[in-house]
Amino acid sequence: MFAWEWEDAKPDMIILGKALSGGILPVSVVAARKDILGVFNPGDHGSTFGGNPLGSAVAIEALNVLIDEKLPDRAIEMGNYFMDKLRTLKNPSIKEVRGRGLLIGLEMTEPTRKYAEALMEEGLLCKETHEYVLRFAPPLIIRKDEIDWAFEKIKKVIG
Question: So what's the pLDDT on residue 46?
Answer without folding.
Answer: 72
